[in-house]
Amino acid sequence: MTAKARRGRSGGTAVKIVVTGPFAAGKTTMIRTISEITVLSTEKAVSDIEGSRKTDTTVAMDFGRITIDRDLVLYLFGTPGQDRFDFMWEILSEGMLGYVLLIDASRPESLNESVSILSAFRAMAHVPFVVGYNRSDSLDDLEEGRIRGALDIGHDVPIVPCDVTDRESVKGVLLALLYAVVDSLDTATAAQA
């Protein structure tokens, strides 16, 4: 167990996962879809984004929880997507074991907006992450190459097409992240041996 994974109340391991991405990528919806508890959310009315299809935006964080089994509980923290709340990114990234960078496939500008968010998270913590490609049920090689090029990520970072309104789809994204975390822990253990 690392310093980032802690024992929960039931004796199992509690793991902190952050869900980040640009405004309107689906972060709050993703956490609401999978959380077994009522999500704590700090949403306020949208006031300064013209043409927004959203009426509310997260200004501090969203918080949810999912129990994988009696030995593993994920605590999910959703970040605000607007740059003016970027001070919360650092606060929420403290102690995370991994993160999901969520991009909205239906908004071309979402990928460009994700570049600076990913850069900030990479500077804050060297932990595994996956890209959740929301509102997409598949990903062809050309689109995958475009995403990898824009984000400057290698093939070791999973890009997972998903629908954040579908529980099974959200599970797929979180499982991809958990596999990436386990792989990084195995690599670190092997390097220490």
Full CATH superfamily name: P-loop containing nucleotide triphosphate hydrolases
- Give the assembly state of these chains: single chain
Please provide the count of β strands: 8
Assess the beta-strand content as a share of residues.
Answer: 25-35%
Order of helices and strands: EEHEEEHEHEHEH
Average pLDDT, rounded to a whole number, is 86
Terminal Cα span = 16 Å
Helix proportion of residues, in percent?
25-40%
> Stretches where pLDDT falls below 50 for ≥5 residues?
none
Please report the number of helical segments: 5
CATH class: Alpha Beta
Rg, Å, rounded: 16 Å
Q: Which outline best applies?
A: globular
From the helix content, strand content and strand pairing, which structural class follows? alpha/beta
CATH topology: Rossmann fold
How many domains, in number, for the residues?
A: 1
Largest sheet: 8 strands, mixed
Name given to the CATH architecture: 3-Layer(aba) Sandwich
Please give a structural write-up.
- With about 190 residues, the chain is of the alpha/beta class.
- The chain has one domain: Rossmann fold (3-Layer(aba) Sandwich), CATH 3.40.50.
- Helices cover about 35% and strands about 30% of the residues.
- The chain has 5 helices and 8 strands.
- Strands 1, 2, 3, 4, 5, 6, 7 and 8 form an 8-stranded mixed beta sheet that branches.
- Helix 3 links the parallel strand 6 and strand 7.
- The protein is globular and about 40 Å long.
